[in-house]
Amino acid sequence: MKLLIESSPYAIIATDIKGNIIVFNRAAEELLRYKAEDVLEKIHITQLYPPGVAKEVMKKLRSPDYGGEGKFTGSEFKVVDRRGKEIPIHLSTAIVYQDGQEVASIGIFTDLRPRLVMEQELQETHLQLIQLEKLRSLGEMAAGVAHEINNPLGGILIYASLLMEGLVSDDAKREDLGRIIQEATRCKEIVRSLLEFARQSGPKLELTDVNRAITDGLHFLENQATFHNIEIIKELDPSIPPLWGSAGQLKQVFLNIMVNAADAMHGRGVLTIKTFFARDGDKVAIEFSDTGGGIPEDILPRIFDPFFTTKRVGEGTGLGLSMSYGIVREHRGNIEVDTVVGSGTTFRVLLPVGYEEAPAQEGAGNP
Ligand SMILES: Nc1ncnc2c1ncn2[C@@H]1O[C@H](COP(=O)(O)OP(=O)(O)OP(=O)(O)O)[C@@H](O)[C@H]1O
Ligand SMILES: [Mg+2]
Fold this sequence. Notes:
Layout: H1 2-7, E1 11-16, E2 21-24, H2 26-32, H3 36-39, H4 53-62, E3 71-80, E4 86-98, E5 101-111, H5 113-166, H6 173-197, E6 206-208, H7 210-222, E7 230-236, E8 243-245, H8 247-264, E9 269-278, E10 283-290, H9 320-330, E11 334-340, E12 344-352
Parallel strand pairs: 7-9
Antiparallel strand pairs: 1-2, 1-5, 3-4, 4-5, 6-8, 9-10, 10-12, 11-12
The structure holds adenosine-5'-triphosphate and magnesium ion (MG).
């Protein structure tokens, strides 16, 4: 019997009627990180629970409402290990009677941590699926609308330009016409990014030097006024291998993230860009850290949603991150965000290495 208890994969703890521990098996040692000899007859059962919990367990145990009097068929609680860390467990417990008298109680504890980790992973996968689905249906709608709007917009631009050409250089109407052309051009740009967002084909794959894509993007940005007062620190690992991907699309992703960083810093701060091997070397991480204001918790879950923006009309369409997310997912990668309000944000793009083998070029080369 003793051997059976010792070998149980579940932690088994028994106490005498006063709550002194009299059985503490090997799994209990592992769960609570005590040695049996330090616990047996030395520690009171209440010390293994957070304050008040042992009492609650005893109360339920004596009540007929939780699986019968003297039995308690299970509920989730926390126990406290030797270092004071709380561990979520599932507990089933019973009072041991002898000749109608309570003589001891016995509890079986199951560690819930592996289950909780699994549940969290499941939930994350679920959220990612929802996000992808949202992107897909929005992409379809956006593509439809964008195609429809493109032609009339082209018409407006052409006729406005023709009118402009027919006006003498000091005509008072030139300014109004100029505004029409300017605004229509902006519409065209929005339509263009919508169409890009809705690209239904997969990325065109080529061996892409990630460090190079970053440096190219930076060259472009450093000439923009918004970057003039931003210090850029580069820590690019030269040993990361070229990845199968679309250089153009990845560059677009990096640009989006860097422009967001500059916006968050209102043109003044430090942007740190790192590339390195991550997750045991089977992924390459590209990390962009800014010293901006961070992202408040309530908007964090929405930043990858299409059209979500906190910027003023005309300053952002809210497509940057959703497009980037779509592209990175097509590259079988992921984007992670760490943010601290008031001190800054890190966007981490993770891409799989697997460069020896080109993935199937599904749909590549299509417009
Ligand atoms: N580095 C960052 N720091 C703080 N907030 C950020 C950062 N990056 C993104 N955000 C928030 O996420 C929102 C969505 O970003 P996203 O790039 O998708 O759209 P946008 O920048 O507003 O517009 P667009 O990129 O289409 O011009 C931003 O409006 C901003 O509120
Ligand atoms: Mg943006």
